[in-house]
Here is the input.
Amino acid sequence: MAEKKEEIQKEYLIVQGAKYETTLTNKFRNRKVWQPHNPNLISSFIPGTVIDVMVKTGQKVKAGETIMVLEAMKMHNNVLMPMDGEIVKIHVKADDIVPKNQVMIEIKPFHGKIK
Amino acid sequence: MSLRSNILDLRKRKLEVQKGGGDEAIEKQAQMGKLTARERILAILDEDSFHEYDLFVEHMARDFGMETKVLHGDGVVIGTGTIYNKPVCIFAQDFTVAGGSLGQMHARKITKIMDHALKMRVPLIGINDSGGARIQEGVNSLAGYGEIFFRNTLASGVIPQISVILGPCAGGAVYSPALTDFVFVVENISKMFITGPSVIKSVLGEDISMEELGGARVHAEVTGNAHFYAMSEVECFDQIKKLMTYLPWNNSEKAQAFPPKPPKKGLKIEKLVPGDPRIPYDMREIIKSLTDGSEFLEIMEHFAPNIIIGFGRLDGETVGFVANQPLVLAGVLDTDSSDKAARFIRYCDAFNIPIATLEDLPGYLPGVDQEHAGVIRHGAKILYAYSEATVPKVTVILRKAYGGGYIAMNSRHLRADFVFAWPNAEIAVMGPEGAANIVFRKEIMEAEDPEAMRQQKIQEYKEKFANPYVAAAKGYIDEVIEPADTRHRILHGLKVSKNKSVFLPNKKHGIPPF
Here is the structure.
C-alpha cells in the first residue's frame, strides 16, 4: 500500500539565532503574549460576581481603602485601592459576573491631600 | 425445592440482574452510540474468558427513598478474564443503572477487584461511564472514591493499570484515571472534567460546551490527560489489546518476547534525514526504520508532538522509544514535552522496559510563557527520570544536541549505558549561530562588514565545535557510527546490558519535581 506523504506546511521557529523549518502546534500559536502590568488598571484576579462598587468616577481615594467587593469561590473579597489616586472609569456594576483578568476599574495616581 | 429448580431459579435471577437498568435504559445507551458495560468487557477480553463476581450485590442507601429502589449490581460489573490467554482483572461501570453513579457498594466492588489484581499481580482495566458520586449516599460515596484512589496509588508501578473513559467521568471520578498508567478516550463519547459547563457558567460566566471543555480531543491534544484517542469504541478496544502485547504483566516480569522480524525494506534511515540541521523530517519514520516489522505504537500522539514516545520491538523484545520530533516546533523541549517524556521514562523503568533515545533538538523552547509556566521545574523532570532509570538506556544523536537538551536527552552524564552519534552530529553548548554571536561579539561588532564577519565566525565555530568528535575525544560519546548501523548498535547495546544491575543510594523515595 503506497502511503501518501503529507506536504509539510512550512513554518519557522528561531532558537538561539538559528532558524528552523518546522511546524507549529495550536498550543504554541495560541500562547498568551506577555504584557507588562499596568498599575492604573484594577482587574479581577479571580472570576466572580461583583457585590458592590463603593466609589464613583472622579472620586479621590486613599491607598488601602476598599473600592469594591468581588464574590468569588463563596468568599467576599475586598478590592483595595493600591495607591492614593483618582477613579477614572468604572466598568462594572453590582451583580455583574466577571471572568479572570477583566478590567473592572481604571484609576490614576493623585498627588496631594485626599479628604 | 429440588436442586434442579434451584438451578433454574439462579439462572432466572442472573438473567434479571444482567439486564442492568432494563431494556429502556439499554436502548438509550445504544442511541448514544455506546455499548453496555458487559458488551464492552466481552469485546476486550478473549472469547468466553469473562467470569463475573458480585453480581447480586445490593446498594446500602437508606435515605431519600432509595431504600425501595433496586439497582442491579449497584451499577458496576467486575470480574476476571484473559487477554491473549493471560489473566487480567476488569471492571466496567454500568451507565444504565442509576447513571453508573458511585455508591458505597459500587465502590466496594471496584476495590475488591483492584485488591485481587494487586494480590495476583495482573493488569487492571477499568471502564469508566458514570454520572459521578451517588448524592443520596453522601459521604459514603466520597469514601468509596478515596478507597479507589488509594489502591490506584498502591498498585502504581506494580501492575499495569488502564483506564478507559467511555462516557462521562466528572468531579472526583476523574482522579482514578489520572492515577493510572494509560487513559483511553473515544471521540464524542468520553467526557472528563472536575466541574462541568453548567457550574462554570453560573460561577464564572464562561460559556463552553461539554465537548470543548473536556471532550476526547481536548484531553488527547491540550491537557495531556489521555494517552490514546480513538474514533470508536471498537477502535479503542483494539488499541488496548495492542498496547497489552508490549507490556509485562507486573513489575517483576519482562514483557513477552515475540519472534524477531527485520524492519520493512525500503525505509533507508540515512535517506530519511536531511543533512542540513535546520530542515525537518518525520522522526516516526526513523523509529519505524529501526523496529521489528516497522511497527511502532505511539503514545500521546497528539499532545506535545514535539517529542515522540511509544513502544516498538527490537529482535522481538519490547523497547520504549523517546525521540525528538524536528517536524514539530523543531523538536524543542518545553513544559509539556518534558512532562510527557519524563512520565514515560518512569513507566519504562518501573516495568523493566529498556529505553532507546533518538536525539535531534536545538534545546529548550525560549519564551516568556514557557518561563512563567515553569519550564525550569518541568524540564527538570526529564533529567530526574533519566537519571533515576536503571533499565538499559541507549542514546543515538542523529543531528543536533545542544546545551541543556544534550544533557537532558539521556546523556552519558545521566548514566546512559551507550551513547552513539552520527558523523554529522553537532554536539555543542549551543548552535553555531548563537555561539558565534556570543563568543565573537567583539570581532563582529568592530568588523567593517559585521554580517560577513558573523557568517565567517559561524562557519569557523561550525568547523571547530559542531561535530561529534569533540565529545568523542572526551569519551562522552562511545562511538561515532554510520547511520545504517543504528538498529544494530542499539540492539547490541541493549543485548549486552540485559543483566544490568545498578545500586542506588537507599531511600524511601526521591522527591521528583512533580
The CA atoms of residues 270 and 483 of chain B lie 6 Å apart. The two ends of chain B are 62 Å apart (CA to CA). Chain B is about 40% helix and 20% strand. Residues 432-465 of chain B form one domain.
